[in-house]
Design a protein that fits this description.
Layout (H helix, E strand, L loop, with lengths): L15 E14 L2 E5 L5 E3 L5 E12 L1 H10 L2 E5 L6 E4 L7 H12 L1 H16 L9 H22 L19 H24 L15 H10 L4 H13 L9 H16 L1 H14 L30
Parallel strand pairs: 1-4, 4-5
Antiparallel strand pairs: 1-2, 2-3, 5-6
Helix pairs in contact: 3-6, 3-9, 5-6, 5-7, 5-8, 5-9, 7-8
């Protein structure tokens, strides 16, 4: 059996989206990826079929678990309580440098960067960005539109809304609608970062957002935010404030489950990597050809094997 090559990772588009681990020890036992609780009960996690695992402060992870997650291409994301902060993320396989260099070239060319930002605006709002506007001006226009969208959704769902306010260092200081929004966006950010890394790009090299470890994650996630997770956050917050079940008893959990269902319903995992390529192609700079000695893509979007075969 030693001569048989290990199975290739499942393409991102064919995986389930996310799974949160609140408490427990992630480990590999008897060849299986498991979460072990405080009394020793194991829960099997199908890590090879997940895009990312979100680890809250109550989770611990062994070296063996990290190694297996990397081999199968499942991104590990360390987050704050209920996703209020993203601390760090692992690398789901070895990304090649050719796409990263192309991304950096686009970000450093002011004309190309503006074209990419305009394409993101078009994809997000369904209409071309205003002409003769700089990146900073488009950022301001986008911010104003987002603020109005929050207000519209708050009215639609009967949410008492005082604006987007939260303290990343103090989860409990935020009101319920902001906690729901933080949870919802954390789900989307984790999924976007998994796709970015799997495709060979850098989360930190953004176009509209800059200067943050997840700048490009925010760029990509913002395209889908109002089509997927933000309406869910406002719906759940409205139901909870009005005392309607099940949102009233566990609003944060209800947001997670709603995001999971939305990702499946919208087929988001099938769209992320192709749409990232579409965004960057708008910069109209030819990507470099990979050198002859380049390693193959770590997580291919093309399936391997027959129908039903784990690629």
């Amino acid at each position: 059996m030693s001569g048989i090559a290990p199975p290739r990772p499942i393409p991102i588009k064919d995986r389930a989206s996310i799974l949160f681990i609140e408490k427990g020890q992630l480990d590999v036992r008897d060849g299986a990826f498991v979460v072990v609780d405080k009394i020793g009960v194991r829960t099997h996690i199908p890590v090879g079929g997940l895009a990312c695992l979100m680890l809250e402060p109550g989770a611990r992870v062994s070296h063996a678990a990290v190694s297996l997650a990397a081999r199968v291409g499942c991104l590990l994301v360390w987050i704050g309580e209920a996703g209020v902060r993203l601390y760090a993320a692992g690398q789901p396989g070895g990304a090649r440098a050719d796409r990263l260099l192309h991304q950096a070239k686009l970000a450093l060319d002011e004309d190309a960067r503006l074209k990419v930002v305009r394409r993101m605006y078009d994809m997000r709002f369904g209409e071309p960005a205003p002409q003769r506007r700089s990146v900073d001006q488009l950022r301001g226009i986008e911010g104003a539109r987002v603020k109005r969208l929050y207000e519209v959704l708050a009215r639609q769902h009967g949410v008492r809304w005082r604006g987007r306010r939260y303290d990343a260092g103090n989860w409990t200081s935020a009101d319920l609608p902001n906690r729901c929004l933080s949870q919802a966006t954390a789900c989307l950010y984790g999924l976007a970062e998994a796709a970015i890394l799997a495709a060979g790009y850098a989360p930190a090299i953004g176009f509209l957002h800059t200067g943050k470890p997840q700048s490009f994650v925010y760029d990509v996630a913002d395209v889908y935010k109002f089509d997927t997770v933000v309406p869910i956050a406002f719906r759940v917050a409205g139901e909870a404030q009005q005392g309607r079940r099940p949102s009233a008893t566990d609003p944060v959990g209800e947001v997670r489950r709603g995001c999971r269902d939305s990702f499946r319903k919208t087929g988001l995992l099938t769209k992320l990597i192709p749409n990232i390529e579409d965004m960057l192609a708008a910069g109209e700079l030819a990507p470099p050809q990979p050198p002859e000695e380049a390693q193959p893509v770590a997580i291919s979007e093309e399936p391997s094997g027959d129908v039903g075969h784990r690629s």
